[in-house]
Amino acid sequence: GATGNVGIGTSSINSFSGYTSLEINNATSGALLDLSQGDSMRGRLIATATSMSLETSGSIPIIFQPAGAEAMRLSSEGDLMHGTTNASLFSATSGSGTLIEPTGVVTIARQTTAATQPLFILNTTGVDGILAQFRKDGAPVGSIGARGGDLTIGTGNCGLIFNDGTEILIPANIT
């Protein structure tokens, strides 16, 4: 059009927050854009009234590459990998990254150069309290927290305080 916008399947381009340059409009549900290489289908963009999806064929992963470098991928098996392309992060040579499997298993690995470099940081600011809570069938069964600058582990009335100032372990009600 005269504004530089292009419409496919429409004569009236709908501006999305004023930024539309290309609109592909399919009057029915289904693929808006098919992505092929030669005669082979590689993927498609599908839009319906309630969702938008990116579909790939075969075992092709979806890869996110900001600034041209891979940062995250979603494998055809449903594994979400951040900072790695390795679905097995269990050895000194596997590198660092996060793997979230469709089964709910989360693996976090970090290849460090010093014993003081943490793998996982939990931080709360303000008041003392729970840093991590553990549950069974939705009911709390224990927690790790902070109290008076010390680490606590336990559940309700039964717990331990790791008192750093006196270097002792204190049985306590951690709530």
Provide a count of the helices. Answer: 0
Class by SSE composition: mainly beta
| Major sheet summary line | 5 strands, antiparallel
Summed over residues and divided by their number, the pLDDT gives a mean of: 83
Distance between the termini: 66 Å
Content of β-strand:
35-45%
Q: What percent of the residues sit in helical stretches (DSSP H or I)?
A: under 10%
In N-to-C order, the SSE pattern is: EEEEEEEEEEEEEEE
Tell how many strands the DSSP assignment holds: 15
Q: What is Rg?
A: 25 Å
Low-pLDDT windows of residues = none
Strand order of the largest sheet: 6-7-8-9-10
Write structural notes for this entry.
By secondary structure, the protein is an all-beta fold. 0% of the residues lie in helices and 45% in strands. The protein is built from no helices and 15 strands. The protein has strands spanning 6-8, 22-24, 30-37, 40-47, 52-56, 62-64, 72-74, 80-82, 97-100, 106-109, 129-136, 139-147, 150-155, 158-163, 168-172. The strands form four sheets. It has a five-stranded antiparallel β-sheet, with no helix packed on it. A five-stranded antiparallel β-sheet has the order 11-12-13-14-15, with no helix packed on it. The model has no long low-confidence stretch (mean pLDDT 83).
